[in-house]
Write a structure and sequence with these properties.
single chain; alpha+beta; 434 Repressor (Amino-terminal Domain); Jelly Rolls; 2 domains; six-stranded antiparallel beta sheet; three-stranded antiparallel beta sheet; 9 strands; 27% strand
């Protein structure tokens, strides 16, 4: 199972996310065990997330979205109507971040539903591979484009790759991987991913 951080989340946007998960589950007539079974992790984990006792990792968020049969962006951002014409302009800094143990994530263009891909701004904050924990893996095709800082990408079967601003890497998200910052400053990247076998999320 993907690792979870045990830091309590009693402030926005984590309260909002926990409330939305519970509200969506109840609106679909699912108890915690049923949703946990559909998402593929323990009911106790879902209970802690809904009560703000655990902050879900990116992998757990993906599983929750799959359990709900929705896109990840629909889950982590406030509900919005489907756009006709499929265009949205976002100006300035992104909204509130979703914190993970080794990174911060800002979903982009969440109002555009039904896309074959999802996009996020991600800031990698961990520089110690030994402290990273279990490596990430998820059923997606991934792309990272470095905007600032230095990215050190560790993957199973490949030597570590060091990328600088302007560099891009495409890789198989099912391959165990760990993204670290390569210096004192956080590494910020554009992250684009697509779920395999259909639309994103």
């Amino acid at each position: 199972m993907a690792p979870l951080t045990d830091r309590p989340r009693s402030v926005e946007p984590h309260q909002e996310l926990a409330s939305r998960i519970k509200r969506w589950r109840e609106a679909r007539g699912l108890n915690q065990q049923a949703l946990a079974d559909r998402a593929g992790f323990a009911r106790s984990t879902l209970s802690k997330i809904e009560n703000g006792l655990l902050s879900p990792t990116f992998e757990i968020l993906l599983k929750l979205a799959q359990g709900f049969g929705c896109e990840l962006s629909d889950l982590v951002r406030a509900e919005a109507p489907v756009l006709v014409g499929r265009m949205v302009v976002e100006r300035g800094a992104p909204g509130a971040a979703i914190d993970n143990p080794n990174a911060r994530l800002w979903p982009l263009g969440a109002e555009l539903r039904g896309r074959p891909f999802q996009s996020m701004l991600v800031e990698f904050t961990q520089d110690d591979l030994a402290a990273f924990g279990e490596w990430n893996r998820h059923d997606t095709d991934d792309m990272l484009h470095v905007l600032s800082g230095t990215l050190v990408l560790h993957t199973e079967g490949y030597a570590p790759a060091t990328l600088h601003p302007g560099d891009t890497v495409h890789f198989d998200g099912t391959m165990p991987h760990a993204c670290l910052k390569g210096g004192r400053e956080p590494c910020r990247c554009l992250y684009v991913f697509a779920a395999r076998g259909g639309g994103a999320g």
